[in-house]
Amino acid sequence: MSEIELTGSLVKKNLSETKALIQQLSVQQFSQPLSVLSGCSIGQHFRHLIEFYVCMFYHIESGIISYDERERDARIENDPEFAMLCIETIISNINALKEDKRLHIRLNLSPEEEKPVVVETSLCRELAYNFEHGIHHLAVIKIGLLQFPEITVDDNFGIAPSTIRHKNTSVKA
Known about the structure:
Helix 3 (42-59) packs parallel to helix 5. A hairpin with a 7-residue loop joins strand 4 and strand 5 (116-122). The strands form 2 sheets. This protein has a 3-stranded mixed beta sheet with strand order 3-4-5. It has a two-stranded antiparallel ribbon with strand order 1-2. With 173 residues, it is mainly alpha-helical. It is built from 7 helices and 5 strands; from the N terminus they run ααββαβααββαα.
């Protein structure tokens, strides 16, 4: 199995678990601002992680990804059905990947002014980056879910694979 196939299969598994969680949430639970999330909603965090994947796939053809230029589509953060449809589209796009590709990222690290830098990367690297980036937002979402005790999540939801492996190794030792 190639690296792009292996990475893609792990990302698809994570996205499927993410979609299963969204299915448990009502529109109210999904879009309600929560004080524990500094007034953000669970849906806003889902939108953020989904849009990074959407942005990546949108820019593959040009070869230059700019996550700063993502759409910030309010439908994703307010409509769980639309968010799940976006996840299904991302999974379809991953299924269509056949090989890695050299890419560049254009990003602006300055909050004060426009000073973009362009960094070389690859499709596989960006897929892995979006997976890791998404894990951190899932951890935040898990905190928000404490407001809704009727929603069940796996203990490892929102935890990086390296942390899970470390915990499992420590328990066995």
